[in-house]
Each structure stands twice: as structure tokens, then as C-alpha cells.
Amino acid sequence: MSGQIHKTARKPFRLALAQAMFRNLPPLFAPRLRGYVYPYRRALRDNYSFSALSHGGTWLEGNTSDPHAYSFSVTGYYDWRNIAVAAAVCQEGDTIIEVGANVGTETVCFAALLGSRGKVIAFEPAPSNIDALRKTMALNSNLNITLFPNAVGEACKRLRFCAFKSRENSGLGHIATSGDAESAEHIEVECVTLDSMSEMMGAARLLAVDVEGLEDSVLKGARRYIQENRPVIILEAVPMHQKRAGSTLRHLHATLVSFGYKVRTIGTIRLGEADLSDSAKATNWLCVHREQSDLFRHIADVMRRVAFFPCIRGLNPICGGSLDA
Fold it and tell me: Which CATH superfamily does the domain covering 79-319 fall into?
């Protein structure tokens, strides 16, 4: 199944071919091969609006001109490793908090894993991403996805947000810092803390944060919530973004350690020690409370299974199959 609803425009031939060839391949290989048949430069030119299925059966509304949506249009996911972590630590009925939901590529995959009894709480301040998320939510009305059009940080206040232009990478938006050019396009957004939202959200099993360098601010505004609920945490860790925000990976790591967490780098097929240098590669960190550190081995096992198994329901964990099968 191609996972595509035909819209008014004809589906690009190369997109259809890439879906047929790569959608069900193991995630370790599919993204690497996708570019040979349907490269992003071609997808950008196509500027094709689509509705595509995740492997869990949820829908994403997107356009191939956005790199996140482009990836999803072919394979049914953007970053399969984040979904693998969720599959390893979450059960149906759990709650996942996603700070920086972008256009929803992970949102819909998380929702598929949690089922109709579960809950995904998404925070996203960029207006065009909010519009995309609302369209996607309308396609998944049977699932419990709550969207807050807010930034998340260390304090509740209004902030300047560096917006991105249409047809730019939807992940470029971020809270304005002293490291931003004065010429950047700014809008005002309402910022909340996770501590201020804790009663409304309830306990989450997983907290995913991708806020282009302000990850430490999100953590500090969630100190009480994290200490009470001890969710597994996925964080984007990019030295350049940290520098723009006036921080470093060492500073971010120190905050996590002060919360009682251990940190590993999410590699291609394994978890490794976190590189805290200014020259570290852009990656995501997996953070687990020290009293649950045995989870690292389980998560690594599930990641390998997701990486090497074909995307077939009941076989690959991100396709809704039982992890115990």
C-alpha cells in the first residue's frame, strides 16, 4: 500500500515509485536509498501536497517541499529512532509530551503507538506548523492529540519567535536569542512552562524536546514536573544551536545530571556516550533517570529490531506489532 490519498494534483511519478520501493524496507536502509529515486531537490520542485499514512495507521497532512514531510511521504516516518524509543518505553494508554512538534511527523507516529486511550500533548508556536498540525489532527479525529500553540521555556511570558518563510525547513523556527540576526523575521508568541501545565497534562512516560537550542530552558521550566514523573527524555543536542542560545552541551548535560538523569547519544543503531565537545555531531540524546538505567539496554534492543526488520505490522515495533512477539 502506498499510504497516499490522491489529491487534485497528480502524484509525482518518482514519489509513487519511491513509495513502492522503499516504504516497507527496514528503516536502516530506506532513508539512505530514498534519495536516489526521489531526491529532495526533486520533491522541492514538485511542491506536492499529500496525506500519507504512518506505519501505525495514522495520517499526516504535508507537502514535499518541507524536508520533514518529504521524508514521511516516502517512508511513513521522519526520524524512526525517536519512534523506536517510544515503542520501547510506552504502552497503549500512556502519555507523550512533544515540545516542538513541527508539522507532526513524530506526533502521528506517537499517537499510533499509544492508541485511542493514550494521549499526545504537542506544543508548537510556529503559525504555519500549527496550521499543518490542525489539518493532520482533523484526519486523526479518533486519536487523543492535544495541541497547544505555545512556546515552552523557563518562564511564562511573551517572547519573540524567529519564524521561517514558506517553503523553508519547518524546523528552523526558534525563540529569538542574542545570537540571531536583527534582520530575522520575528513574531510574538506566548511561552509557558511544563510545570505550569502539569495538572492539565498528567504524568507522561516520554518527553521529546526539539527547540533549536533552548532545550535547557525547557528543562528548567519543568524541574518539578520531571522530578515528580521521571519521564524518559529525548533531546536534540546540536552545538551550533546551543551556542546561538548562549549555552553549551556541557551546560545542558549538567542540568540533566542535576535532575538525576543519565545521558546517552542516540546513534544509528546503538546508544553511545554523549560527546560534550563544541565539535560534537548534531544528534539526539536519550535521557533516563538513574533509578531506571536498566531501560537503556531494552531501548537499544528495540532500536536494533526497528532498524533491521521490514516495516510489517506484527514484525517491526513501529508498525504496531507487539514487542514481546
Answer: Vaccinia Virus protein VP39 (3.40.50.150)
The cell numbers describing 128, all together, are 504555519
Distances (CA, A) of 219 to 82, 158, 251: 19, 18, 12
Name the one residue in this structure whose C-alpha cell is 533531546.
235
Please answer whether residues 272 and 265 qualify as being in contact, where contact means their C-beta atoms are separated by less than 8 angstroms: yes
| pLDDT digits 0-9 by tens, 94-111 | 999 999 999 999 999 999
Alpha helices in the chain (DSSP H): 13-22, 30-37, 40-46, 67-75, 80-89, 105-114, 127-139, 198-201, 215-220, 223-229, 239-244, 249-258, 295-308
Rg of the Cα trace of the chain? 19
Domain ranges of the chain: 79-319
Strand 232-237 vs strand 283-289: parallel, antiparallel, or unpaired?
Answer: antiparallel
Rounded distance between C-alpha atoms, residue 82 and residue 85, angstroms: 5
* Contacts of residue 270, Cβ cutoff 8 Å, sequence gap at least 6: 300, 303, 304
Comparing CA positions, the residue from 200, 259, 253 lying closest to residue 228 is 259
Whole-angstrom Cα distance, residue 28 to residue 100? 25
Banded pLDDT at 323 (limits 50, 70, 90): very low
Interacting residues of 311 by C-beta distance below 8 A, sequence separation 6+: 23, 24, 25, 26, 27, 30, 55, 75, 76, 318, 319
> Structure pTM?
0.91
Predicted confidence band of residue 4 (pLDDT cuts 50, 70, 90): very low
Q: What is the rounded CA–CA span in Å between residue 295 and residue 239?
A: 26
Taking the C-alpha atoms of residue 120 and residue 127, their distance in angstroms, rounded to an integer, is 19
Dihedral of CA atoms 45, 78, 30, 4 in degrees, nearest 10, equals: -60
Burial class for 105, CB neighbours closer than 10 Å (0-12, 13-18, 19+):
buried
Q: Are 299 and 83 in contact (CB under 8 A)?
A: no
